Amino acid sequence: MLETADIPATVIFYTQVLGFTPENYTEDMGWVYLKKDGVTIMFSVPNEHRNIGRAVMSGSLYFNTDNVDQVWDKLKEKCNICYPIEDFEYGMREFAVYDNNWYLLQFGQEIDDNL
Length: 115
Description:
Strand content: 35-45%
Shape: globular
CATH superfamily of the largest domain: 2,3-Dihydroxybiphenyl 1,2-Dioxygenase, domain 1
Number of strands: 8
Largest sheet: 4 strands, mixed
Structural class: alpha/beta
Oligomer: single chain
């Protein structure tokens, strides 16, 4: 469960940019469950009992895909880029973007799968 201060904007980003489908969502619920190709993710408004000014995450969400170049072509003009698509010495072709909450989303594919 990731926090967001703006559920509607998060739903727009994840549905219109990334192609997820919301499940059981109404704006006043304070949370959303999204699905795409076997991937599920949940967002909620910040818990009022926690004393955190804004949502933060020190890591990233990593999406393995078998078509990373196509995903890059689709997202590169729609997202804030952390780093563009490239091949890494550890055997992955990947890129990273930020979502509307500034969570880091990485997309990668094993280089051997590109052949």
